[in-house]
Amino acid sequence: MSTRGVVFVHSSPTAVCPHVEWAISGVLGARVSLEWSPQPVVSGQMRAECSWSGPAGSGGAIAGALRAWSMLRFEVTEDPSPGMDGERFAHVPGLGMWRGRTSANGDVVLPEDQIRSIMAECSGAQLPRRLDQLLGTAWDDELESFRFAGDGAAVTWLHQVG
User: Bridge partners of 157?
Assistant: First the structure.
């Protein structure tokens, strides 16, 4: 079962850029060469994005591979496929990795049983804080300026081999 998604490397030290390409190449089974550009939000950092296609679960594998470099800021999306929810992974230094299910339009989806569990466990101000954690609000807040800086950047298309 094949799907597709996007990798957004929002900030990477220049020396780590080849390692990012090798990590994605290792998951997709094909040589990856990204088009890097300066990240205007953080001096000395680079940014790149690419679309990918491969088997369901490749998004998580790419995010797991990139997680090896804790200084990276990145997001990986995987589109929904038959029988599979979409997913979005976000990594921010100091916050670590966040993972969420996504709908066809990219909204984060919280399963009913998870919401009921939180409602039973939390009271008062705890409920909004817990929902913000599940929705990845801290990651979105941290990444927003990096996303804006990437508007108009070149996108590379990648396809998994065999």
Answer: 51
Instruction: Kindly report, residue by residue over 42-101, the tens digit of the pLDDT.
Output: 999 999 999 999 999 999 999 999 999 999 999 999 999 888 889 999 999 999 999 999
C-beta atoms surrounding 47 within 10 Å: 25
* 8 A C-beta contact, residue 156 and residue 28: no
Measured distance CA(122)–CA(13) in Å, rounded: 40
Domain locations in the chain?
A: 2-159
- Give the pair of three-digit tokens for residue 48: 């790149």
pTM above 0.85, yes or no: yes
Query: Do 119 and 104 meet the contact criterion of CB atoms below 8 Å apart?
Result: no
Cβ distance 86 to 96 under 8 Å? no
Tokens 């995010």 locate to 63
- In angstroms, rounded to a whole number, what is the distance separating the alpha carbons of residues 102 and 85? 6
